[in-house]
Amino acid sequence: MQHEIETVEALRAHLEACGDLRGVVVQGLDLTSLTEALLGVSGAGAALLGCTLEHPAAEHLRASGAVLFPELGDRPYRCYRPRLYSPEELLEGTEEGRPESFWESSRDARIYAHYRGFKEHGPLPVLEALAQRLHDHAIDDAKHDLLQRPPAKRCVAIMGGHAMRRDAPVYLDVVRIAQRLCRAGYFLVSGGGPGAMEATNLGAWLGGEDDDACARAVGLLAGAPSYRDRGWFESAAAVKRAFPNGRESLGIPTWFYGHEPSNLFATHVAKYFSNSLREDGLLAIATHGVIFAPGSAGTIQEVFMDAAQNHYGTFEVVSPMVFLDAGFWRDAKPVAPLLARLSEGRAYASRIFYEDTVDAVVARIRESPPVPYDG
């Protein structure tokens, strides 16, 4: 079995306890402080991905059987990440009081500019394609580690429009739904961007606060209702200062939509280059249900991706699909009739709900746990 090591301290402890590197995979660490220890062990059976090593240690490990994967050139992102992003890491380079500096010099914007530069010139060069795939694999791995870490996580995703304004009533509804589910012990997941995604992560952030906190927080945000408005970042930072004891949640954004900034309320950010991996993976982990707030083409795509997972039992369970604003989903964007025909005779037919209130949506998730897929 492979043993993944994600900190220098963990590798040092492993060397002291085991005296070898067989089966060890080390990703993205600076190991220059361990040169002496590494010179004293065989590299047979080990893989080091994008690690920084002093030359003698690198030569010794390679000669004794280790596989060393190098960094693939100078890029604004690391191919081999041992952990997910944080909002603060993505904001690095942003200057306080100059919101435009996010787009000029933040880590997030620099990676997007790099990505867009390649995207605009046809198929990716081989090394860039490989680097992006390695990065996204590292994100997948770190996301898995987060979700496997105790306590067990009952994941619920909330999907909805990126253009949902902070001053829209439905935004506050999504915040309240996420807050109540967080309090009930669910782990909230969103697409990591603005709009309904931000409302999801904000609600989870406020999971330890009283009911009035949602309205107070949204009131602080309402002066910059869209991510295109000046003050969007600053108002979010003000909410985090006002409510500093935020609870955990996961945001899963993508540089495919890099013109939309990642929101500041997700405590863990699994940001991908590949939107297809991001979309499928987001729905895959939401085994305790997906809530669909009003949205446009992207949200409707996610509706039918989730339906397909339930239809075919892709992950061996059938999970609830709960739609907020019944009229929207039955009339304005009438997915309901097609879902009814698709699900006829299938187990997930009894787990599709259309509701209009915060309480009803929360109750549907709580009262409809996933059930085994039986074909």
What does this structure look like?
- The chain is an alpha/beta fold and about 375 residues long.
- It folds into three domains: about 5-70; about 85-140, no CATH class; about 145-370, Rossmann fold (3-Layer(aba) Sandwich).
- It has 16 helices and 13 strands.
- Helix 3 links the parallel strand 3 (about 45-50) and strand 4 (about 65-70).
- Helix 8 packs parallel to helix 9 (about 195-205).
- The chain starts with a strand and ends with a strand.
Order of helices and strands: EHEHEHEHHHHEHEHHHEEHEHEEHHEHE
Unreliable stretches covering 5 or more consecutive residues: none
Query: How far do the termini sit from each other?
Result: 33 Å
C-alpha geometry: globular
Task: Evaluate the radius of gyration.
Answer: 22 Å
Binned, the helix content reads: 40-55%
Discrete helix count:
16
Q: Under the CATH scheme, which architecture of the largest domain would be assigned?
A: 3-Layer(aba) Sandwich
Q: In CATH, what is the class of the largest domain?
A: Alpha Beta
The chain-level structural class is: alpha/beta
Strand order within the widest sheet? 8-7-6-5-9-11-12
Topology, number of strands: 13
CATH topology of the largest domain: Rossmann fold
Hey, roughly how much beta strand do the residues contain? Answer: 5-15%
Number of domains: 3
